[in-house]
Amino acid sequence: MLHSSFVCPQLILFVVKMRVFYVLLVTMLFVLIRHQFSLAILRPFTFKYTRRKLVSLNVNINPPSSAVCSYLKHLGIHSHISLCPRRKQFRKYRAGRHIAINRFRTIEVVCNSFRTACGSVSRSVNVANLINICPLSVIRNEAKTLTVGLFNAQSVCQPEKRVSICDFICDADVDIFFVTETWLSSSGDEARCIDLAPCGYDVKSFPRLSRGGGLAVVARNAISLSLEFTSSFTFDHSSFELVMVTLSLSNRSTHFFCIYRPPPNRKNKLSVSLFIEQLPALFEYCNTLGGSVMILGDFNFHYDRPDDPYVSKILDLLHVYNLEQSVHVPTHKHGHILDWIVYRPDDNILLSSTVTSKLTSDHLAILCKLDLTVPEPTNEQRLRRNINSIDRQQFSLDIKSKLEFVGHPSAEQFHRCLCSILDSHAPLSLEIVRQHKYSPWYHKICAELQAAKRIRRKAERRWLSSKLTVHKEIYIEAKRQVTKIVHNAKSEYFSLKIAGCVNCKQLFNVADKLLGRNIALPLPASVSMECLPRLFSTFFHDKVVKIREHLDGATTHELPSPYSHDVEYEHTLFTSFKPVTTEHLLSILAKCAPKSCDLDPMPTSLLLDCLDVLLPSMTDIINDSLVSGVFPSFYKSAIVKPLLKKSTLDSNDMKNYRPVSNLSFMSKILEKVVAYQLLSHLNSYNLFSGFQSAYRPGHSTETALLKVVNDLLSALDEGEFSILVLLDLSAAFDTIDHDILLHRLHHVFGIQGTALSWFRSYLTNRFQMVSIKGTLSDPVELCYGVPQGSVLGPILFILYMQPLSHVILNHPVSHMLYADDTQVYKSCNANDLPSTILCIEKCVSDIKTWMLSNKLQMNEDKTEVLLVTPKRVAKSEPFPEFMNINGTCVKFCPSLRNLGITLDSTLSLHQHVLNVCRGAFLELRRINSIRNFLTTDAVKTLVCSLVLSRVDYCNSLLAGLPQCHLKKIQYVQNAAARLIFRAPKSDHVSPLLQKLHWLPISCRIEHKISSLCYNSLSGIGPQYLSDLTQVYTSCRCLRSSSDTRILKIPKVKTKSYGQRSFAYQGPIIWNKLPLEIRHQGKIDGLKQALKTYLFRFQ
C-alpha cells in the first residue's frame, strides 16, 4: 500500500504535466494555425491608400482610437478636421489674462470593409471608430469628383485679389467657382473679368447694372461646353441677384443657383421681408426642374442664430421644400455664417462642404465635393505645317525648277505645283493641342513661387494652431508675397511682349488678349460640332433662296421693267482688259496685306517671300484670264465662317449670325487688277451717280452726312421743317440678279466684248463652303448676289443701284446714297407738312416698286423717320406722329442713328456728343485696366486708334456747336493725355498735348473743315460739296482779286443753325488761313502746314 500510495502521486503529477504539455502544445498549434489562417484571410484584404484620398475624407462619426491616431500621425497624414481633443493649455499674457487654447489632433482615420489598413492586428483598435473607404485598386479607376467653390470677393477690381482667386482655384483644383460681389461693370471691366480665369478656365460675368454687387462663374474648359447660363427668370427676384448654371454631364443635369442678397439700406430700398416673400418662388422654380439642385451664395443671414425671426422663417421654408443647409462653420470675419450651401438631401450629390481660410476677404471661401464625374480634358488634334523650318532659298529653287518644267501653268496647275512643293518641304503632320496647365509666365517663377507657397502654408498652420493676431498678420503677409510674385511676373511678361511688337497688328493682338477681345465667340451648343457646318450652310443658303422666292412671287400687280430707269451709254465702249505688266502687278502686291485663306496653296507671307520666282507665272495667269474673258473656275470657291453679330445675342439662334466670306489670295489680286481698269473707265466718263458716296475716292460717310446735315440746318435757318427717311434693305448684296447686273453693265456703263464675258464668268458657277474649326460643309452653288468679301463685289453693287437716283429725282425730294443705305429728305413750311409727307410716301412707294422689279427687298420694319423742327416750335405745336411707308405705320423717332452719327429732332447733336464721350471714356477705362503692362508708346498707339478715332469721326459736323458741347469732348482728350503719361488731374494738360503733338478739339475740327474745302476746290472731293463752296469773285478790281482761293461766305439768319452749316463754316475757316497754306499744291503738304499753323494758337 505504501508503494501504491507512493506511485499514485507521482503518476498523477506526471499525467498533470503531460496534460499541461499537451494543452500548451495544442494551444501553440491552435495559435499558429489561427495566425496562419488570419494571415491568409488578411492578405487579400490588406490595401494601401493614397495620401490624397486619406486627406480628402470627411469624418462624421465618433473620434477614433488613440492607436489609429498615433499610427496616422506617424504617417504624417493631417487634416482640417479636429479630432482627439487634448487638455486645455493656457498662455499667460503680460496683462495677466489667461486664454484657453484647445489642442486638437487634426488627423483622419480610415479602414476597409474587413480589416484595418493601418497598424498591426495586435494593437487595440475600436473598429466602430473607423471609416470604410475604397481600396487603392478602386481609387485608381475612379473618376475625379466635381469640386465647386464659393467666395464673396467684396470687389475683384484690385489685381492682387484676382491673382489670389486664380491661385486658389489652381491649388484647390476647383472645377466651378462662383464669385459674389465682383463689383464689375457691364462694360469697361472686360480685362478684369478675364483676369479672374486661370489658364485652362473660362469666366462668365453677370454684373449689376448699378454700382457694386455682381456675380461671376469661373469654370474649367473641360466642362465649360456643358454649362448653360440663365440670368432672366419668370419670377421676381428684385431683392437678390441670381444666376442659374446648368451642368449637363452623362445625361444628368445639375442646376446651380448663385445668389447674392445685398443688405437693405436707404439707397437700394430693399427689405428683408421682400426677400422672404420672393424666396419661395425660387424654391418652386427649383421643383419644376429635372435633375439635382444646389443653391449657394451670400444670403447675408446669420445661420448661426436660429432664434432670429427672419432666419427662423427661412429655415422653415427650407424644411417645407425638403432642403438643407450644409455650412456649419463661420464664413465671415465676425464669426457668422452668411454664405450658405443649400441642397436637397434626396439628390445625394453633396459629399462634403469645407470652409477654408486660404482665400479671404471679409468672407471665407467654401469648397464642396459633389458626387459627379468630371470628364477628362480632351486634347484637340489638328493638321499643321512647320513653316519656320523651311529653307527659303532651297524652297525658291524648287519652285523655279517645278514651274520651268510645267512651262505655262494654268491656275489649277499653279496651285498644285505650290501644294506639292510645300508638302515636300513642310508636310502636314498631326499635332495634339494640349491644354496649357500653367500660364506662360509660370515657368520663370516656378521655384520662387513654390517656396513662397510653402512659407504661406507654414504660416497658415502656425496661425490656425495658435490663433494669435501676430501669426495672422504673418500669414496675410505671406499671402501678399505670393500674390506679388505672380502679379510682377505677369506684368513683366506682357510688358516684354508689348515692347517686342514690331507693328500695330501685333500690338493690337496682345492688347486684345489682355482685354479679352480675342476670345472666340460662342457657337450653338445644342448641335454637335460635326453637324454645325452643314446646318449653317443650309441656313445661309435657304435665307437667300426664301427672299428671292418672295421677290419672284411678288407679281400680283404689274411691275415695271427693271430697265425702265436705265440711261443708255453714249461714250466709248469698254470691250477688253489690257494685259498687266509685272511692274504694275508688283505695285499691287506691295499694297496688299499678307492675309491667308484656307483655299490658298501656301501662306501669303511665304508666297511674298518667293515673289521673284512666282511673279512671272502669276502675271501669265492673270493675263490669260483678262485676254480670254474667263475667270478661273479654281478661284470661284469661298470659305464662309459664321460670326455672331453681337456678343449679347443668343448664340443658339442662327439668325444672329452673319456669314463672313474669305476668298483666295490670287482671286483678290486678279480682282484688283480688273477693278483698277474698271474704275479708270468709270471715272473717265463720270459714270458714277453724283449722290453715291460709297467706295469712291474723296467720298466718305462724313461727306455724305455733311451734305445732308447742311441742307437740314439751312432749312432750319429759314424756319422750315424737314422730314428725313432712312431706308433699309434685307440681304441686299446676296439677292442681286445676275442677268439684270450684266444688262446694266452692257447698256448703262458700256462694257462689252471679252470684258463683259469676263464679268459673266466671274458671277456664275460660284460655290461656298462653311468652315468651323477645320470641318467643311458640302459646296453650295450661289445663284444670286455678288461675292461677299471680294474686291469687285461692292463696286458692282453700286453700279447695280445706279438707276435708283433717277427714280428719286422724279420726285421733288433730296436724297443721298451710301452703298445700300438710302436717305430721302425734304424741307417745307409748317403749313405744307401734310403734303410733304404724302410726297415722301409716294417717293418711297416708287422706290419699293423699283426694288421689287430689281430683286431687292426693302425692310419696312427697320425703316426710320425723323421730323426735324426748330427749337422754338418743337414743343409748342402738335405734329403728325407717324408716316405710312408702304402700308406700314412708321412713327417719328425722337433721334436716330445715321451712318454712325446720332441725329435728334432739333439737330443739336447733344446726344451724339454724349455717345462719343461715353464710348471714348469706356475705351480709356479698358486701356487703363491694362496700363501697368503697357509702355508709353503702346498706350499712345492704342489711344489714337481706339479713342481719338471716335473723337475725330465726322467731327466736321461739330463746327459751330456751343463750347459747352465741345468741352465735353475736350475732357476726353485731356483724360487720354493724362493716361498716356500717368499724370494726375492736378497737372496742366497743355504741356501734355504739346508733347504728344495733339491739336485741341476745336483746332482738329478746323483742320478737318479746311481739308474738305481744299478737296472741294481741287476737284478731289464730291461734287455736292463743291456746289456748297463757291469761289469769291469781286465786282471790282481789288488787291485780293489775284487770290483765286477765297470762298464766298453766304448770308445766314441764325447762329444756332445757319452758322453751323458747312456752307458757312467752310468759307469762314478757310479764308482765315494764310495765303501760302491755301495755295498748297498737294493735300499732304496742306495738312502738314495746317497743323503747324494751328499749333501757334494753343
If helices are DSSP runs of H or I spanning 4 or more residues, what is the number of helices?
34
- Strand fraction equals 15-25%
In helices, the fraction of residues equals 40-55%
- Major sheet strand order: 7-8-6-5-16-15
Mean pLDDT: 84
Which spans of ≥5 residues are poorly predicted at pLDDT below 50? 1-7, 37-65, 73-123, 130-142
Number of strands: 33
Question: Largest sheet at a glance?
Answer: 6 strands, mixed
- Molecular shape: globular
Distance between the termini: 149 Å
Computed structural class: alpha+beta
Cα Rg: 40 Å
How would you summarize what this structure contains?
The protein is of the alpha+beta class and 1098 residues long. The protein has a 6-stranded mixed beta sheet.
Task: Tell me what you see in this structure.
By secondary structure, this protein is an alpha+beta fold. It has 34 helices and 33 strands. The strands form 9 sheets. Strands 7-8-6-5-16-15 form a 6-stranded mixed β-sheet. Helix 5 packs across helix 13.
Which descriptors apply to this entry?
six-stranded mixed β-sheet, single chain, 34 helices, 1098 residues, alpha+beta
Layout of helices and strands, plus pairs?
Blueprint: H1 2-45, H2 51-55, H3 66-75, E1 83-85, E2 89-92, E3 98-101, E4 104-105, H4 136-141, E5 145-152, H5 159-172, E6 176-180, H6 190-194, E7 201-206, E8 215-220, H7 221-224, E9 227-230, E10 241-249, E11 252-260, H8 272-287, E12 292-298, H9 309-320, E13 324-325, E14 339-343, E15 350-360, E16 364-373, E17 380-384, H10 392-406, H11 411-425, E18 429-433, H12 446-466, H13 469-499, H14 504-515, H15 532-552, H16 582-590, H17 604-609, H18 611-628, E19 637-644, E20 657-662, H19 665-684, H20 701-717, E21 721-727, E22 729-730, H21 738-747, H22 753-763, E23 766-772, E24 775-776, E25 780-782, H23 792-800, H24 804-809, E26 814-818, E27 821-828, H25 833-853, E28 857-858, E29 864-868, E30 882-885, E31 888-893, E32 895-898, E33 901-904, H26 910-929, H27 936-952, H28 963-981, H29 990-996, H30 1001-1018, H31 1023-1026, H32 1062-1071, H33 1075-1078, H34 1083-1095
Parallel strand pairs: 5-6, 11-12, 19-23, 29-31
Antiparallel strand pairs: 1-4, 2-3, 5-16, 6-8, 7-8, 9-10, 10-11, 12-14, 13-14, 15-16, 17-18, 19-20, 21-27, 21-29, 22-28, 23-24, 23-25, 26-27, 30-31, 32-33
